[in-house]
Amino acid sequence: MSLRRRVTITALLVLLIVLPITGLAVKAIFDAQAERNLNTLLNGRAQLAQQLARQNVAPNNLVRRIDADGIRVTLTLRNGQVIGAPPLDVDKGTRQVKTTLTAGQRTRGATLILSADTSLLEGASRTLRRVLFIAGAAALLITAVALILGMRVALAPLDAMTSLARSIAAGRRGGRLQPTRRDTELGRTAAAFDEMLDSLEGKEQYMRQFVADAAHELRTPVTGLQTAAETLLQLGPDAPTERREELELLLVRESRRASTLVADLLELARIDAGLVLRRQPVLLKHLAQTQADRVRLMAPGHTIQVTGPELEIQADPDRLTQILANLLDNARNATGDHGLIEVVLSNATGDSQVALSNHLGGVRLIVQDNGPGVRPEDRERIFQRLVHGERSRGSGLGLPIARGFARAHGGDLIAIDRPDGKPGAAFLLTLTP
Predict the structure, then answer these.
(1) Domain ranges of the chain
(2) In CATH, what number does 183-274 get?
(3) pLDDT 10s digits, 219-250
(4) Residue 289 has what pLDDT?
């Protein structure tokens, strides 16, 4: 059922419940008030008769003066004389007030009967019931028509939103709702819808650019593979050994380059889809020392130092290994054939004297080198995908992947100034359990 129909039916059901209850309440109040007014009128007339008797008003004048519409006055004197109309039969819907006059020469001891026919009240009650029924039915009908017409106007923004969503699904981009008022529920919804479209189209444009850049990056190793393979085929079996080995080495290098790029793209896809971490206790200093030993084997001319306490944290060891390997490889490439790379660990408060601490609230790890460093204006740009630094030899995906892994752990990875103020690059990795 549509929202318009649900709102209309719900409102009518509410009215069907409220109107009868209101009608019954109004009728009950009317009947009670009518009874009260009738009793007040009869008692008031009886009190007036007592006052007139004290003023020694003649019986005929007394009856005439207390007479009123709807009231029958019967005065019976002590001698049995009856003045006024005979009283109404009590059994036929009559309300009576009977009193004995206590003053007056001729009225002392006389009996006064005031009678009122309640059939008039019952008729008025029946008329009120009919009026309430007709008014309720008319209110339901008018409300139904008003809701049908009003819902079209009130839900027009939702219809516009539906039309826009369908046009976007059909491939037409760029449309927006652009609400004139943003302080209403529908206005805020429309504004949020526009913001969502801006974000989606921005991401779509970004993904298109990313795919184009990735294809461009892949084209280079694929072209190298194709060229080397075609050259090998053209040279044939009689090709010189050195030339053949050179082409085979090119095939291996370019295939590794393409494989690395594809693997990095897959890692980014996993990060975007929501990375699942396999957390377990990890000794961070031991992990950093292992990666430092790996880099020493690859670059014997580098000096690599790992300082700070041994810190244990609940984390995914494979992902942390990728982060550290990326940071150390970047530092090695940035410092050329000889350089100093330092890995400094500390707890979240910066106290590097804290020893092994299980379930630590968070850790800080800085990887710094004595290379040319990263300019402040480039420190955020280098974390964008497929962005290469001046000395970068990779695909431009290592730092974005490392930051994605860090944020999946509830931490972050940023480029900073070296804490000791010396020239060079420094990357701060923060991790939380």
Answers:
(1) 3-151, 183-274, 280-431
(2) 1.10.287.130
(3) 767 887 888 788 878 887 777 888 878 888 88
(4) 94
